[in-house]
Amino acid sequence: MVDKRFQDSQSILVLSTILDLALAFIKVLVGWLANSHALIADGIHSLSDLLTDLMAWFFIQIADQEPDADHPYGHARFETFGTMLLGAILLAVAATIIYDAVLRIYDIAAVIVPGWSALLVAIVSIGTKEWLYRISRITGERVKSNLLIANAWHHRSDAFSSIVVFIGVGGAIIGIAWLEMAASIIVALMIAQIGWKFGRQSMAELVDTALSTTDVTAIQKHILNIEGVQGVHSLRSRMMGAEVLLDIHIQVNPSVSVSEGHHIGEWVTRGLVQEFPKIGDVVFHIDAEDDADAEGRDSPVPIAPLRSEVRAILNDAWKHVPMAESISQVTLHYLNDGINVEIYLPRALLDRSDHNAEDFKVALRAAVRELLWIRQISVWYG
Question: How many structural domains compose the chain?
Fold first, then answer.
């Protein structure tokens, strides 16, 4: 089944393309027949809308593709890139309108009075482009497509330029030609503001700008309310199209099992996705304590050895401790300032007259007193 988001986006873009092409043709033709240079320029502006419609269609097609081996997070950033290009086009259109207005101010005496038909086409263009703006914006907000929303604002920029044509043509007809140039500059500045907004937002997403402090605080507060969570740190966020991606370090009780710690993380993920609809993916790391200072390749905190090396050191230290060879299991708890060691022995040893549990524990601790990274030793029978 074709994705409904894709269908809705394509329907709006096809409609926009057809109307932009028709408007561009009518504006250029009537502008030429009615001696309206402003209407011809507006027709060229409509052609730029046609270009952005095609660009939006192209990038949304790519963005809606499923994740693959080369793009495991999906293709949403292609839509972001398209939005950035669209913002750049809006800025370019604004600069062109301002440049054209300044040239006409310097040569205002050469302006030919246009015919009344140019006013009629301008009114039709205003109504059509405003309608396209509204349905494109509503659809973009419903399917959460920044590109469609940006394209909607481009439709409104064309409606503004048609208003400029209406004012300019009307002013020229009644002998106030400078009104067209003044309105052109004002509208161009409005278009530039819109282009800058979308370009800045897209650039922020492309360089992995984090969510706002308010959003991050709300997410942290929600995580801390999940049972079993003792702390949260190193929360990293970024946007991928309309979705938010999170990387989180969650602190849990050091004594819980690996599976329970992972289960707590799954509950955190489920809660975040339900509470914050924009969150699309959560990667969590379970910590026994706040290890923010120990994270990263350049951390000043030395990393403790792995199990095989620890067991070899402990076996060598305990080789003269009676009954040490009966140890059946060793569990290691890695913490910032060392390792907590839990050892397990058969319960039957407690019934032997030559074995005292307390003396055995004291002997184990005495044998490793020089190993400063051993924080604690616990002995269990069972």
Answer: 3
